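Lab notebook, bench 4. We co-purified these components, and the gel suggests they stay together. Before we commit to crystallization screens, I want a quick structural picture of the whole thing.
Request: model the full complex, all chains together.
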Amino acid sequence: MKFPEQVRRLAAVTAVVLAAVLVVRFVVIPASYFSTKLHRANAVKREVARPVSFAGVLACRECHEEQFDAKSHGYHKNVACETCHGPSAKHADDPMTVKPYAPRDRKFCPVCHAYDAARPTGFPQINPTAHNPLKPCITCHNPHDPVPPEVPHECSACHAQIARTKALSSHALLECTTCHTASEQHKVAPRSALPTKPQTREFCGQCHASGAANPDAPKVDLAAHGGAYLCWQCHYPHQPEGME
Amino acid sequence: MNKRQFLKGMILFIPAGQLLETLARQAEAAGPGKPKPAKPDAEPDMGLGDYQPADHWYGMGIEIDKCIGCNRCAEACKAENDVPQEPFFFRTWVERYRVMHDGEARVECISVNPQQRGELQEDRDVLRTFFVPKLCNQCAHPPCVQVCPVGATFSTRDGVVLIDKDRCIGCRYCIQACPYGARYFDHRTSTADKCTFCYHRITRGLLPACVEVCPTQARIFGDLRSKASRLVRFQRMNKIGVLKPALNTEPKVYYAQLDGEVR
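Here is the predicted assembly.
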C-alpha cells in the first residue's frame, strides 16, 4: 500500500518535532529540573527549622529539681510541667527575663478534674461548685504532689454523714476532736459517754476572733458579730457558710 | 531573506543554541577544581544533621479509655505550631461521643468551646459516652497526596505527610480528599495546613507537643521500625483499630478500645 505524498511529509515533520521534543526533555533539560527532591528538601528544611515552644519535662529538671522530684512520685507524675505552666522553652533558655505562667487560679484544675460523664471511671473528679468553693485548689493540694489532704476518719464509722459534709467544707482540715472531746468509751458504747460540744461563742473565737492566732481562719469582731446568739445558731459548724 | 528562509533558520537556531549551552555547562562542570553538581538521585541537604529519615517510621497510639477530654493537646498544638486561634482551625482536636439508647451516636468537638465542658448533666438517654482525640492519620497511602495537582504535599521517608507551602496553590483539593477532615485552610498564607507530627520536634528527639502535655498518656508516640518503642509495645498489648479501614489509606494513628460508633 502506498501512502499519498502529503501523509508522508506530514509524518516526517511529526517525527522530527517529536524527536526534538524528546531530545529537549531528556537531554537538554537537566533531570534535576524535573526532580521534586530539591523543593521537597527545602520544605523539610523549613519544617525542621521551626522553633520549639515546649521544651519537654527533662529540660526543666536541671533547674527545678525540687518540683521535679516532688512530681515524679505523686499522682501528677504523668502530667508534664508544661501542661500546667504552658510552653516554656523560652523560659528554659533565658529564665530571668521570661517567666512561665503559674496557674494559681481555681478555674484551672477543673479543666481536668471537674466531673464529666464522658471521663473514664476512676479518674478523680470533683464538683467544682461544691468542693471547698472559696479557696484556690493549691491551698489544700500541692500542685506538684497533690495528695488529697489527710482528712480525719476516726469518727466517720458512725458519723459518716457529718464526716462527709465536713470533708468538703472549710472546716475539712479540722479534727472532730478540736471541737469535741470524746472518750474511748464513746466509741464502744456511744450513748453511755457522750462527747462534749462547744458551749460558748469564745470557743469559736479561739480561731475566729480578730487577733486570734490561726492565720487561715477568717476573722470577725466577736463582740458585735451575730449579736448575742451562739455561733452555731446561724452557722452549721460542720459546713460553715461565709460570705458566699 | 524572505519569511520562509527566516523560519527555517529559526528552526535550526533555537535547538542548536540550547545544545551548545548545555555542552558549555557540562564542560564547565567537569572542569578541574569545581564541585560536581549533585546527582539528581542523591539526597539533597534537608537540615537534618545526623538524623536519618529512612531509619524511622512514625505512628501514634491513642488509648481512648484514658482520654479525659481536658483539651490540653489541642491547645498545646496551637501554641507549638502557630495554628490560628479561632475555633475550627485544628491540627488535632478532641471529640465527645455520646451513644444514645436508641443507638444514635452524637458527636461534638469539645475543642471548639472548651468552656462548655463539664456542664453536661447526667443524661438518662445516654448509653455510653467517651472522648476521642483526632488528628491527621499520616496515612501510608494518603489520598491528599494523590490529589494534589502540583505535588505540594508529600510523604517523607519517615512516614509523615508534609506540605510544601511554597508550592501549594491553595486549591483545597486535599482538604476535600482527606477522609478524616484533618486538613484546614490557613487564610493567612492561603495554603492548606495540617498536623506534621511536630516534625521539627521529632527530628530533634522531642515528642510531639500533644503527646508531651497529655496528662494521662492517652497518646503514645513512637517509631514502628524500632523493636522496643512504646508504640510497638502499645500495639502488642492492645486490640488496635484504625479509622475508616475500608478506605485502604493505611492510617498510622492506632486506636485502642475503639468503639464501633467512632468514624
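The first strand of chain B starts at residue 58 and ends at 63. Worth comparing against the SEC data before the next meeting. Chain B has seven helices and eleven strands.
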